[in-house]
Amino acid sequence: MMRHILKYIVAVFLSFVSGRLPAQETAMITRLYDTFSENLVTLSVDFVMSDSRSRMAGEAQVKVQGDAYHVAGDGYEIYCDGESVWIVDPAAREVIIESASVGGPDAYATNPALLLSCLEDYFYVTSASGSRFTFTPKDKGSVESAEVTLTPEASLSNGIFRMTDGSSWTIKVNTMTTSPLQDRTSFRPSTRFDSSWIVTDLR
Q1: Nearby residues of 155 by Cβ (< 8 Å), 6 or more positions away
Q2: pLDDT per residue over 105-116, tens digit each?
Q3: What pLDDT shows up at residue 86?
């Protein structure tokens, strides 16, 4: 469950930094895209996943650079170099490796970086009011609607994903900083997965 939560966290934020937004594109969104396209962006976030039966809260660190990212939270780490995704559970010494290119309406959940260039393939912008933007998916998938709020400085403030199963994901950005671009290899695990690890390679 937690590794899926971390995937949706990065999907929330990557989904709002596309350089190919529909007609409702605003100067604020353009500034946000410029920030993500020219820098390594690091976010510290709190998240809550809730449904009619349970509530789960946590925190995560998210690094985004182009179509690559690294997410760490609650004992899990997810790396993506734009081609492969490594979901690492250090405590259990287990890693799942997937291709970053998966089709279908929920493709962004496996490879959120797809939204950097193809937001309009997945979402309509249904409303924009000041710094708040509401999105609706074009195709039936796990997301029913999404909403994001930016700060006056065009940084990410918070996001809400409402899911078709009745659950919701609320994410609050505590800090958002930028730094120079890094080599793509920094978005791959440095750990050597030897025979002591359970490795499931699904590529």
Answers
A1: 32, 35, 173, 176
A2: 555 555 444 443
A3: 94
CA 116 remoteness from chain centre = 10
CA–CA separation, 42 and 61 (whole Å) = 7
Structure tokens at 123: 């979402």
Q: Which two tokens stand for residue 32?
A: 């946000």
| Residue 153 CB-density burial (10 A; 0-12 exposed, 13-18 middle, 19+ buried) | exposed
- How far from chain centre, in Å, is Cα 173? 12
DSSP H or E segment with residue 99? strand 94-99
Q: In angstroms, how far is the first alpha carbon of the chain from the final one?
A: 21
Q: Each residue of 37-63: pLDDT tens digit?
A: 788 989 898 888 888 888 988 888 888
Is the distance from CB of 46 to CB of 57 less than 8 angstroms? yes
State residue 121's pLDDT score.
Answer: 61
- Selection from 159, 131, 132 nearest residue 143 by Cα: 159
For residue 181, what pLDDT is reported?
94
Checking if the pLDDT of 190 tops 90, the result is yes
Return d(Cα 94, Cα 90) in angstroms, integer: 7
**What pTM did the predictor assign?**
0.75
Give bridge partners of residue 84 from the DSSP assignment. Answer: 99
